[in-house]
Design brief:
The protein has about 325 residues and is of the alpha/beta class. It contains twelve helices and seven strands. Strand 2, helix 2 and strand 3 form a beta-alpha-beta unit. Helix 3 runs parallel beside helix 5, helix 4 runs parallel beside helix 6 and helix 8 packs parallel to helix 12.
Length: about 325
């Protein structure tokens, strides 16, 4: 009674770590179908999978923006069965909206949001029929809180969260589970790709204040945020494994305790001003407040890490 796990976006980062971590489960509780858009990029996964390849891990092609490829992949599984779907494929986009084309924005929505919708159109009916299944979505802390110059990316993750919150009510009727995994910054290709794209942005369409804010405030602090708050993809995979083995998995799970002080601000003020004003201060009085905030968060993290370790060893 091995559970079938289908994961999207496994050629790098969190998806790769998830596939390997779950396939290497000592009790062999899972059969992992690690999927990727482009099979020619399978080498790092093949290497990391080691002896699990062909045993508890198989690699398949799946492009979340292509319905036919999703159907072909699901059709190729024994009885088309997926017990746990991990929707991970995604892309980032940073910068002022004046400098982004609608096409670029649409491809973020198409991958991050409609990617999940397409997967579920194919997989949900079978899960409902079997009255069994767990849908796990790699969202982000930006699924609950917007961040400067991540307008479109945050919107795509908010879309995911609204969609899942609505669907979760229906899913209860069928005994299905939905879980949103919300990592803070994770050190992957994603971070580098997004930063490199950010450097290439033609800022001539933005006014001087905006362009300056992007280059000298946002990009300048970008690396520091990842260095201070960044988690490894393996860490996110470990959290996700804990969620998929639970009998009653939570609807939301934040993986980065360093980040919880920020997301808590949202729930602390029903008017919604507190997180916006706090981020504003962090960004614009950054030399003092930003560093002080990061240090404060580091301290909190050190304390909560101790409690997470205790929790795990219990
Ligand atoms: P990544 O760029 O290493 O991985 C994203 C993967 O998705 C890549 O392998 C890419 O090829 C794949 N992908 C993109 N479009 C696809 C498509 N149409 N079909 C199939 N696969 C496609 O970055 P990552 O950090 O591992 O990102 C994985 C997920 O984690 C994303 O949903 C991202 O939004 C989320 N996330 C990342 C961070 C972070 O800081 N890195 C933080 C929170 C959430």
């Amino acid at each position: 009674n091995q559970k079938v796990v289908l994961i999207t976006g496994c050629s790098s980062g969190i998806g790769l770590a998830l596939a390997v971590h779950i396939a290497k489960d000592e009790k062999k509780r899972f059969m992992v179908y690690a999927t990727m858009r482009n099979l020619s990029k399978a080498e790092p996964l093949v290497e990391a999978a080691g002896r699990t390849l062909g045993r508890t891990l198989e690699i398949k092609q799946l492009d979340v923006c292509d319905e036919a490829s999703i159907k072909a992949c699901v059709d190729s599984l024994p009885e088309r069965r997926v017990d746990i779907l991990i929707s991970n494929a995604g892309m980032g986009l940073i910068g002022p909206i004046e400098c982004q084309s609608i096409e670029e924005m649409k491809s973020v929505m198409d991958t991050n949001f409609f990617g999940l919708v397409r997967l579920l159109k194919e997989i949900l009916p079978d899960m409902k029929r079997r009255k069994k299944g767990h849908i796990v979505v790699i969202s982000s802390v930006m699924g609950i809180q917007g961040i400067l110059f991540n307008d479109i990316y945050a919107a795509s993750k908010f879309a995911l969260e609204g969609f899942c919150e609505s669907l979760a009510i229906q899913a209860l009727r069928f005994g299905l589970n939905i879980s949103l995994i919300e990592p803070g910054p994770v050190i992957t290709e994603f971070e580098r790709k997004v930063y490199d794209e950010g450097l290439k942005i033609d800022l001539s369409k933005a006014d001087k204040v905006t362009a300056d804010m992007f280059t000298n405030v946002y990009l300048k602090n970008y690396k520091q945020i990842f260095e201070t708050l960044g988690q490894t993809p393996e860490d996110v995979a470990e959290h996700t494994l804990k969620i998929i083995i639970m009998d009653n998995p939570p609807f939301r799970h934040q993986t980065n305790t360093l980040y919880t002080p920020m997301t808590t601000l949202k729930y602390a003020d029903p008017n919604g001003d507190l997180p916006i004003e706090t981020f504003y201060k962090m960004v614009f009085e950054h030399d003092k407040v930003f560093t002080a905030s990061l240090n404060f968060i580091k301290l909190l993290h050190w304390r909560s890490r101790k409690s997470f370790k205790l929790e795990k060893s219990n």
